[in-house]
Amino acid sequence: MDLRERHHRPGRRVAPAGPCSSRGGSAVGSELVQRYAAALGARDWDAFAALLDDDVVYRLPQTGEVVRGREAFLRYNREFPGAWELTVLDAYGDERGGVLHGDYGVGESQIGVTVLRFAGDRVAEVVDYWPEPYEPPAGREHLTGR
Question: Would residue 143 count as lying in a domain?
Answer without folding.
Answer: no
